[in-house]
């Protein structure tokens, strides 16, 4: 199996949205497809939810816009020229006003923004059902860490849940995968864990 990891760029936007069009995720309800729009550099204040999140088509359109403006970042996994996996990884400090952060991540410390430390955050994974448990998420994670080191980041951070009860909570990635990849528990909270890997 030949898996290639490619950084998301505007020329891959159609591959990206097609993958979300056809891959079950979140709660498996078609209209609830997220296209990962809640996790980007958007400022979600005001009527953001109504303008950009209130339908699958709006989220799809916003995803393309964000990819073209570099607000939605991450990596796609390809097998035989078909997308089979995705990892959303972005600069933590740039995403603190996004919808996902405001709604779900209030428990995560952000003190590094005051110290000048650069943190790359991993928000989710999505793997095609037929390709699960083949190591694709680990390959995506390895590439995130490699590029983060080259780009001058101090840490990579991830937020696995304590209990993965449904597709949405499974998308954060399993705790064991992070431990095997050199991450350590930075903070343990009711919702789950803040995992960190030091790069420099």
Summary?
The chain has 200 residues and is α+β, with helices and mostly antiparallel strands. The chain has helices spanning 13-22, 48-53, 56-68, 99-104, 136-150, 167-170, 175-180; strands at 3-7, 74-79, 82-91, 119-127, 155-158, 184-188, 193-198.
Task: Explain what the structure shows.
This protein has 200 residues and is an alpha+beta fold. It has a single domain, classed as Aminopeptidase. Helix content is 30%, strand content 22%. It has a seven-stranded mixed β-sheet, sandwiched between helices. It is globular. The protein starts with a strand and ends with a strand. The relative contact order is 0.16.
Which characteristics define this entry?
Aminopeptidase; globular; 200 residues; alpha+beta; 30% helix
Fold topology:
Layout: E1 3-7, H1 13-22, H2 48-53, H3 56-68, E2 74-79, E3 82-91, H4 99-104, E4 119-127, H5 136-150, E5 155-158, H6 167-170, H7 175-180, E6 184-188, E7 193-198
Parallel strand pairs: 4-5
Antiparallel strand pairs: 1-2, 2-3, 3-4, 5-7, 6-7
State mean pLDDT (0 to 100 scale).
Answer: 91
CATH architecture annotation? 3-Layer(aba) Sandwich
Shape: globular
Question: How many distinct domains?
Answer: 1
By CATH, the superfamily comes out as Gcn5-related N-acetyltransferase (GNAT)
Q: Helix coverage percent of residues? A: 25-40%
Please give the count of helices.
7
Task: Supply Rg.
Answer: 16 Å
CATH class reads Alpha Beta
